[in-house]
Amino acid sequence: MNKELVVSGGEEFVQIALLEDGRLMELHQENVDSNFAVGDMYLGKVKKLAPSLNAAFVDIGYSKDAFLHYHDLGPNVKSLLAYTQLVGNGKFKSPNLKSFRKEEMIHKDGTIDKVLAAGDNVVIQITKEPIHTKGPRITSEISIAGRYLILSPFSEKVSVSQKLKSKAERDRLVSLVESIKPEGFGIIIRTVAEGKKVAELQADLNYLMNKWQTVFKNIQKKKSPIKLLSEMDRASAILRDNFNEDYTKITVDDDELADDMTEYLDVIAPGKSGLIKVSKDSEVPLFERLGIERQIKFSFGKNVTIPQSKGAYLVIEHTEALHVIDVNSGNISRNSNNQEDSALAVNKIAASEVARQLRLRDMGGIIVVDFIDMTNNANKIELYEHLKTEMQKDRAKHKILPPSKFGLIQITRQRVRPELNIKTMEENPNEEVNQVEAPIVLVDKMDQILRNILEKKGRKIDSISLHVHPFVAAYLTKGFNSIQLKWFIKHKKWIKIVPRDSYKYLQFNFLNKNNTLYNESN
Q: Mean pLDDT lowest for which of 218-227, 457-466, 493-502?
């Protein structure tokens, strides 16, 4: 699998696209002046306690106070509070925790009022960004993530990612890390550390300790609320969490972004910064030049066509409480002698697209998927296992339940950021209807329907014409290398374009020589 990262900078936000074999799999938009992002660390002030919720509300500078539950305090919160106070008062002058006297750990079933009081300064980290009317969700169990290691102040434990299965390798890594671990810190060894030498782990640990020194210096300022440490930009964070030998290219259209990413790539993967290419064009934006904008328009919206299926599509509905995805087969099942086998085939293709859509839109919470009905239990199990396999590519924490007796599959997926919502409808300049589908999506739909018509076996097609609004006809026939000519080269069939004054702006029909409508079933 070839992975490509495309990063486009703008005045207000940066767009980041992750492509796998040329197909858009993840899309991120990060505000240039982004604050309160997941991973950001703040020194906040406790505003009030909520004993009934066993939680506290903390002022970190956002318009709404952040929510800190007792279970998110972390067992070493008393040590963190004592350290924060001593450093703020100038009584402890080192980021090194070797000589710091740790406080007792709190009980997991305790109450918030035994730990915090209104007015306390507390170091916290954002775990969930502000969503709609809710403020940030935070934790005081802080950690700093690197390429191979995660640094946890006030803990002494060394642990290994559960995804690393080899006991021998786990033991080797624990032994190496324990030999270099500074006293007073705990370390989590990440999956990508597999096979790494002590020098590489030490370099990553030095990088993390420099970050902790930044936190220490900012605590000394004694101001609250104040940001202590920023999570790195999304593009670098994606490289940190994902970069491997599958990456073949990183394309950027901004020199400053390219420099930042080159500097970070030199740290985590020396010799690989050559993958970063700067591509500028003042007239055409990077996403349009690389065809990403087309994929965005085609992948978002209520109805999502599945190109590989030749007719199947998803209907995605959003409510306040959950997301509902309905799988529709189109006309595929009519062409199969075995409806059960056809349903399984379509469902598996749809499951792959569902997994992609969850990553692409960053959908969180409860997702209910209504697949095409199947009666064979073995097929239901096969679909369930296929969906689990596809979801393994998703970094967000998730859980998938087996199909219910109604054939529904329920998914819970961690929500840490607002869902990405891209509008695929545009203003209609010629009709009473306020919005219409984007023209770029319409042309793809035309091509798909045309392909389905031409691929029908046993049908003799003498001629075929496309009747459209005059504006669209002009667009399809414009230039020497027109869309009409491209269809002829692709399908080996000349499609006559007929302008129709009576047609609505984006209405179209394929007709035969008798002016009878073609459709996918005749």
A: 457-466
**Does 484 lie in the same domain as 346?**
no
Would residue 418 count as lying in a domain? no
The enclosing domain of 484 has a CATH number of 3.40.1260.20
Please check whether residue 346 is in contact with residue 361, taking contact to mean a CB–CB distance below 8 angstroms.
Answer: no
- Tokens 């938009």 map to which residue? 29
Residues 7 and 85 in one domain: no
Domain count within the chain = 4
Residue 500: give the domain boundaries. 438-511
In a domain, 321, yes or no: yes
Q: Are residues 215 and 304 in the same domain?
A: no
Taking alpha carbons only, the member of 169, 139, 165, 135 closest to residue 153 is 139
Q: Is the domain of 95 the same as that of 178? A: yes
Letter string b/e over residues 96-130, b meaning 16 or more CB atoms within 10 A of that residue's CB: bbeebebeeebeeeeebeebbeeebbbbbbbbbbb
Which tokens in the block code for residue 316? 């995605």
Q: Helices 339-361 and 377-391 sit at what angle, rounded to 10 degrees?
A: 20
- pLDDT the model gives residue 429: 57
The string of pLDDT tens digits covering residues 478-516 is 988 899 999 999 888 899 998 887 777 788 999 887 777
Element (H, E) at 50: strand 41-50
Domain boundary among 368, 398, 413: 413
Q: Among 156, 145, 260, 261, which Cα is nearest to 212's?
A: 145
Residue 304 bridge partners (DSSP): 314
Strand partners, 24: 19
Same domain, 98 and 14: no
Sorted by sequence, the CB contacts under 8 Å of residue 392 that are 6+ apart come out as none
Distance (Å, rounded) from C-alpha 503 to C-alpha 495? 18
- Please check whether residue 24 is in contact with residue 298, taking contact to mean a CB–CB distance below 8 angstroms: no
Q: How confident is the model at residue 521 (pLDDT cuts 50, 70, 90)?
A: very low
Alpha carbon 386 to chain centroid, angstroms: 20
Domain harbouring 288, CATH code: 3.30.420
Global confidence as pTM? 0.69
402 C-beta neighbours (distance < 10 Å), count: 12
Identify whether residues 207 and 260 lie together within a single domain: no
**pLDDT tens digit sequence for 317-357:** 988 778 999 998 876 545 455 788 888 999 999 999 999 99
Q: Which DSSP string corresponds to 190-208?
A: -GGGTT--HHHHHHHHHHH
